[in-house]
Amino acid sequence: MERESEASSDNVPAAVTNRRPPMVAVDLGAGSCRVSLLQWMEGEPEVAVVHRFENAPVEDGDSLRWDIDRICMGVEEGLRLCAEMASVAIASIGVDGWGVDYVRLTEQGRPRTPPFCYRDPRNEAAESAVHERIGERRLYELTGLQRLRFNTVYQLYADKLAGVPDEIQWLNLPEYVLHRLGGRRVSEYTNGTHTGLIDLKTRGWCAEIFNALGLDITAAPELVQPGTDIGRLTGPLAELPAFQKTRLIAPACHDTASAIAAIAHEGADDWAYLSSGTWSLLGTVQARPLNSEAAYRADFTNLGAAGGGICFHKSVNGMWLLRQCLDHWEKAGHTFSVSDLIADAERAALPEGLLDVDHPELMLPGDMPHRINERRVEAGLLPIPEAAESAGVFASLIFHGLAKRYAEVLSELASVTGKRFTTLQVVGGGGRNAFLNRLTAAATGLKLQAGHVESSTIGNFAIQMAAFDRRGGDSGTPLLEEIGRCARVLERANYE
Q1: Which of 258, 350, 396, 406 could form a disulfide with 96 if both were Cys (CB 3.0 to 4.6 A apart)?
Q2: Which part of the chain is CATH 3.30.420.40?
Q3: Contacts of residue 328, Cβ cutoff 8 Å, sequence gap at least 6
Q4: Residue 4's pLDDT is what?
Q5: What is the pLDDT of residue 264?
Q6: Which residues partner with 172 through β-bridges?
Q7: In 228-309, which ranges are E strands?
Q8: CA–CA separation, 283 vs 295, rounded Å?
Q9: For residue 2, what pLDDT band results from cuts at 50, 70 and 90?
């Protein structure tokens, strides 16, 4: 593959665009999963969502788990469709997804049991037990991670409390899918930082935390950096002509890190990001970790960014609230399209009082309209009729509450980092919600720039492209710069 030659008109080297092979990006979402194919037509990128399938946790007695075999079957179906569509051999596959959840492995490398969903209530007792052994403040000093009871560290301790042997190996979900396809057992760094077990200074597994909790550090996977080649696709899929030489690449396996990698933003340091999906993640990219007392009190997190640096942000309850309301009404036989619901929300009267979208009770699944009304009654407000006819009113309440919360978090972010923001880059599916975007712009006073709806997929591809450009040794260009250059190319992709 060429590395040099004349630059194109947008200062992107010809090597970035010429004679590139197809690639596949898998984006695992807590609500839906996507398998996308990147091909090049006359030097221009074309991305197609080849397969999309729904995903949701399933109840297993008193537990909430993921149907990991169904997820993998959906991924494999998407890969077969990619093989049929690809014009030439596919060079690589990368997988990203939500963080914190993991698979405990048998000796054969398969799940011992279906993995727990991060919203399982077992984490509450585990969180308290962990803090009895190592304090919250010390955890933050070591990891810089936001206090969220579903972080992997609490889930692993919940396993310990349930009698699961500590030495049983585990893998976070995106890396498990890569492992199942033939890759070696690894934890990609950006996803690893989401476990609450990475030392902020050494960027390795934190022995102090493992020792304090009696967890087996040898059960943790090998840590690798974004863009690492972890092996060759094997198994039945590798028998297909398009996949006979396909490599498995760990991109930024944490979907937020991949999404932020898709923002081809250079120069100015006056922008914040909003990754809007099931969760809303508001933050900024920092050159170095920030785990000061002010950052701890404001509850910001330090997560690895692709190409170095830190995604410094806070998690806010996001479109999960609306999705839970929709699920409740659908069980009663009423189905809404999101676009119709947004239109109904715009027509609704301004809500009386604003919803605290981050109330702990609103983090739990089930009967969300009733949970919201309980919060209103606590605040001395009248409940909203919970029938489907009030869907637009509930949606309006949620959107106004989100915009208010975004403004609060961005104000805290500016105070803690010392930055002055002028622009908010919005990536992810929530970026299509023009009504929420207008509310957010009004609440924050910032200029909103909508990025790609499938930003995690675009970032995933950009990292794969950068990894291939760097094969054979150091290219002399920093990885972050290489990723940014590839992301700029993909901004003009024809996306289907």
Answers
A1: 258
A2: 14-256+455-495, 267-451
A3: 366, 367, 368, 369
A4: 28
A5: 62
A6: 102
A7: 228-232, 247-250, 271-276, 279-286, 301-304
A8: 12
A9: very low
- Decide if domain 14-256+455-495 falls under CATH 3.30.2020.10: no
Least confident of 6-10, 164-168, 316-320, 400-404: 6-10
Can you spell out the DSSP letters for 301-322? EEEE-TTSSEEEEEEEE-THHH
Task: Provide the β-strand partners of residue 183.
Answer: none
**d(C-alpha 22, C-alpha 24), whole Å:** 7
Q: Could you give the CA distance from residue 243 to residue 93 in angstroms, rounded to a whole number?
A: 10
Provide mean pLDDT across the span 345-364: 92
- Other residues' Cβ atoms within 10 Å of the Cβ of residue 91: 20
Please report which helix (H) or strand (E) contains residue 171, including its range. Answer: strand 170-172
pLDDT of residue 283: 95
Listed residue (244, 74, 254) closest to 174, CA to CA: 254
CATH architecture group of domain 267-451:
2-Layer Sandwich (3.30)
Q: What is the pLDDT averaged over residues 192-214?
A: 97
- Helix or strand holding residue 21 (H, E): none
Q: 3-state class of 198 per DSSP?
A: strand
What is the pLDDT, as a whole number, of residue 432? 84
How crowded is the C-beta side of 405, counted as CA atoms within 13 Å? 23
- pLDDT category, 258, cuts 50, 70, 90? very high
Please say if 340 is a catalytic residue: no
Render 36-104 in DSSP notation, one character per residue. EEEEEETTEEEEEEEEEEE---EEETTEEE--HHHHHHHHHHHHHHHHHH-SS---EEEEEE-SS-EEE
Which is the catalytic residue, given 96, 255, 344, 469?
A: 255
Structure confidence at residue 267 (pLDDT): 55
| Tokens describing residue 366 | 């089930």
- pTM attached to this predicted model: 0.86
